[in-house]
Amino acid sequence: MPKVAIVGTGWGTRVQVPTFRQAGLEIVGLWARSKEKGSRVAAVLSIPICTTDYRTLLANSEIDLISITTPPSTHAEMAIAALEAGKHVLCEKPTALNAAQAEEMLSAAGQHPKQLALIDHQLRFLPYYQKMRALIKEGYVGKVLYVEGLSIEDGMLNPKIHWHWWHNVQEGGGRLGAVGSHLIDLTTWLVAQPVRAVEATLRTFVSKRKDGAGITREVTSDDFFDLHLNFSDDAEGFLRGSDVTAGKAVHSILVAGSDGSLHWQAGELEGYRSETKKLESLAVHENIQIPQGLHPTQWVKGSVYLGRALRDVLEHGNLTALAPAATFTDGLNVQRALDAARQSSVEHNRVSIL
């Protein structure tokens, strides 16, 4: 089986280990910042190699792919080193801390064209988003007028949640990077139009938290974002995300056009065409099994499909399996939009992306 090493003890161990194993990938290595935590997690997950030096994993000739799930501030260094060591790379989103780092990553990928260099925008692999993209391409909605994306949860509403890297903008924390990057990538992919300008409002509603030692620290990353995007073909985008909204989580995507619309929410895809004046349910078959213990969110489901695609490429050489995947080029485009959003929020104006 293709062999994978996970760098990080968060998303990578919680979700990628079980979903990738189910897909037929062998998890053989783990990097952790803390030796104690790493050893404990590796023992629980039966991962044979555990290290606090990620270059140990890069030096292992048996490892095929490195999955980087550490804070964004570490992505560029690790991804570039992994590519130079001859490894395939899957890098968590957002791509990097800023566009300059993302450009360095793309340059490194260009020097190693035979290696995979992917960003973990796994939502692209979900059947209902692939159907939306195909229908838009076929002209179901006509000319795209605007897109709406919503992702609201209460994950950071409780002020007693301890401060960690996610609350530090210098490490790349915040809702904009964590979920805004997904929404930007997904909408640009669906409508096949890059972002050319951004106007944004970022807020930090819970501004102070105590760390593990009980010391009160300032939260410098956002827990709420509101984005107004201009796409290249004059379509508009309205994306909103929150980690401080009490109640049921809501995730939805709407694409409105001159001849109709498509709307996804809670796993259901609906379409409306002006010529028929009828709302139709667009059923999508999900051939999927969620590993035991995981909640079937769209991100978890996407990881299941992504794991299968990685297996098909690494084991069988089926490159078409990764056709939907986000490349480092896609990651750079998203990073530019994130940078523009942060600049816009500070300057209170619209920022163009060249």
Question: In summary, what is this structure?
Answer:
By secondary structure, the protein is α/β, with parallel strands linked by helices. The protein has helices spanning 11-23, 35-45, 54-58, 75-84, 99-110, 127-138, 175-191, 298-316, 328-347; strands at 3-7, 26-31, 49-51, 65-68, 88-91, 117-119, 144-152, 195-203, 208-210, 216-218, 224-231, 236-242, 250-257, 260-265, 268-273, 278-281, 326-327, 351-352. Helix content is 34%, strand content 26%.
Q: Major sheet: order of its strands?
A: 16-15-14-13-7-12-11-8-18
Count of distinct structural domains? 2
Fraction of residues in helices?
25-40%
The global form is globular
CATH architecture of the largest domain: 2-Layer Sandwich
What about the largest sheet?
A: 9 strands, mixed
The number of strands is 18
